[in-house]
Amino acid sequence: MNYRRLGRSGLKVSELSFGSWVTYGNQVDTRAARELMAAAFDAGVNFFDNAEIYARGQSEEIMGAVLKELNWPRLKYIVSTKFYWGLATGKGEFPNQRNTLNRKYLRQAIDASLQRLQLDYVDLVFCHRPDPDTPIEETVWAMHDMVERGQALYWGTSEWTAEDIRAAWDIADHRNLHKPVMEQPQYNLLHRKRVEREYQPLFKDIGLGLTIWSPLASGLLTGKYRNGIPAGSRATLEGYAFLREGLTDPAKNNVVAELESVAHDLGATLSQLALAWCLVNKNVSTVITGATRVEQLNENMKALEVLPKLTPEVVSKVDAIVRSSVDRG
Prior knowledge:
TIM Barrel; two-stranded antiparallel sheet; alpha/beta; 14% strand; 329 residues; 40% helix; eight-stranded parallel beta barrel; single chain
């Protein structure tokens, strides 16, 4: 395993990390999560990604129970969480309880997450989506205070526009507050514009780090959706129906079929090719992977062996194949 700096911070994260979105609390219980996290740690993974909203808090509870059981030295691993949607459900109004980044919500949210994770602090905390109803300055101050209290070490954003990230950074810079260090965007062979174009000035100007999600396009780039939605896949889970249309897109699956020949020539799987391709981008600090089985996790880890094989010629060939289907929007 190799490690990269998280932006311009001094924190080093493993090139491949392990996340709990969709799986924990839906497809993976505490016992399976323990096996997966132990295997990832043994492979050199030091970053474990989570969020308050994943399985409505159950994901944090599962990860917290596993971390307590494994009892690794705290210095050896990195944990994240994210806030925005909240956990309030049911009918009626829930002001300050969901879809917000105001000070009141963030103050309560971090306390609740730390309790579920059974940790004194998280290493990374993200504003999970932008909040148009809360002034960015209020959010920046709330995140600064969270770091000052020692409840988080670094803060950042997820799926924010470059304009809003820069506004938050400038506010923090002018007021000598803790600045946003990282962004967590979707990035894969078929979804690239934000990372490769919109964020480019931020890499140079403020040293933004990236912890990317969905490197396999929710499984599309594994090839398993070429013949429809298989039973037991994430697209069949309640609440994830929004994935189905994109996963069965004929044009994108034709691209996947062409990529399979490239992967074969490299002695790799489609998944390994797609994960390694993300790491070719030096602005990517870490690629968040997911798995429901240890065998699947170990296969993903072998993407690091494929990375040296991705010469400029191979990358150009891959880009030529995906050009017609890449998400330019």
